[in-house]
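Two records follow; treat each independently.
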Amino acid sequence: MFRGLRLMLVLIILLLLLLVSKVIWDRWSEEGALPFQPSNLTRQEIEEVSRVEVTVLVDNEPSESNPELKAVWGISLYVRADNISFLFDTGPSPKVLEHNCLVLGIDLSKISFVFISHEHGDHTGGLPYVAKVAPGIPVFVPSGMSSSTIKEIERLGFSVVEVKGPTKICDGVASTGPLFSGSIAEQGLVLNVQNKGVVLLVGCAHPGVDRMLLNATVFSEKVFGVMGGFHLGGASEIRLEQIADVFEDLNLQLIAPMHCSGKVAKLFFRERFPHSYLDAKTGSFICIDP
């Protein structure tokens, strides 16, 4: 009997140690004890684009100026970089994507490719509409995306391109390559704008928006801005300060949190960076030029 009690006590102690270790690890990671290590990255040169235009086709924040637009949980950005146009993520719904394109007068049949940040449905759900109007175009996905999601994209008739590392996609446009948060592989899209530097688009920034920005410096030490989902709902003040330190170190001139960034984080960055902060939402139009 006593032997059984001792065994149970040992098991309880081991379980408590595991739980405490997880709490310490989570706090350690949150407070920045896992620093960026650029040693495995090689500098890559990509051309510059002279002008970038970004239209927010889908976001969960509704438009204040155009009530016809539908707001749903997700993100999709229509991007023009000089003479190239493409789609960054597709939102959660083909119907919402189609509706908002019609309201905004945007023709996706002319896009050159789709860039998918990661495999979650609020970023890939609009692909059936894209397949209908722009069949067979390339879809760039991060290596590490599940085979089931890749097969679903291929079944829509797209040509899937798996990105395995920092990669040029076309003139002035590149991928950070996949970064991981647990089992989630996510890539960010880099735009190298003349006289400005790098602008980074992120879907949810599961690996950390700061980490993704620092990885984008493989293409240029000059970073102009970041926009998209920062995934900071419920983030601690310590975590927000850590990210703000990176924003300051990079001297960001454009900070546009959307989608999953969280209201508290948005307010924090708006107050911390009043001259760089941009309140972007469904229907917003952002132009970056020299």
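The next record belongs to a different protein.
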Amino acid sequence: MLEEIPKYQPGADLALLTRAYDFSAASHKGQHRASGEPYLSHPLEVAHLLVDFKMDVTTVTAGLLHDVLEDTKATKPELEREFGGEIADLVDGVTKLGKLAFSSREERQAENFRKMLVAMARDLRVLMIKLADRLHNMRTLDYLPPDKARKIAQETLDIYAPLAHRLGMAKVKAELEDLALRTLQAEAYVDLQKRVAKRRLEREADINQVIAILERKLSEVGIEAKIRGRPKHFYSIWKKMHDQGREFDEIYDLTAVRVVTTSVRDCYGALGVIHSLWKPVPGRFKDFIAMPKVNMYQS
């Protein structure tokens, strides 16, 4: 962390982070996770995730401290004295979100709960810390009793994965959904793993061929672009099979190709090249540049 943060936030107060580590270690001393690991391993992983998200040092510091108000004898006034009001407010915000109880699986209730989370988190950074907290908890879900694990997984699917989507965090959303599927539909998850692995080499060969063709054709018309393959995650495959009653062999978009250009003009130009090479599927083309998603994502 101390090496990574200055790469995207030059001049960050790293001493603040060191003090927070010492405070968190002292506060959680003697506490252990369900896995048997020292409890400090959890806030450390949350802080590492926040660094992966490129969050500022203030947010990472709050991530290191995010459980001290809920799980130790530390108080908010103590945090204010040690780290200032901004960090104390962030930790307090995460603590308050953690005390909200979600019970209903109805879609409207879930949406209302997500809105409540956003409204309560007056600072967006509180939601980022909460998502990092939930992601690490999901990664270590196997150590919990099955009933508790299933409850957390369902809550993640209903609340936190859509929240990550709203915040434009596609990778976090995908991982949360896959981890939830592993707990809620264990047999289906293992079966998908085997099926996807079996066709991996075949798909990689197809993707590499498409990338080679695109690189050549885009170069011919003077469009600079970065092109890479992107695998579809397990939950999206399972959901398509489940919702549409389709077999695995009927799912054709197990991987996708992402083309990143330097301008909107080149993006539409690349699209023209792609449509000249491969016929678009009727009703499946979406222009998120002209009509962005609700989180303002454009592609």
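Discussion point: The chain has a mean pLDDT of 88. How would you locate this feature using only the token line?
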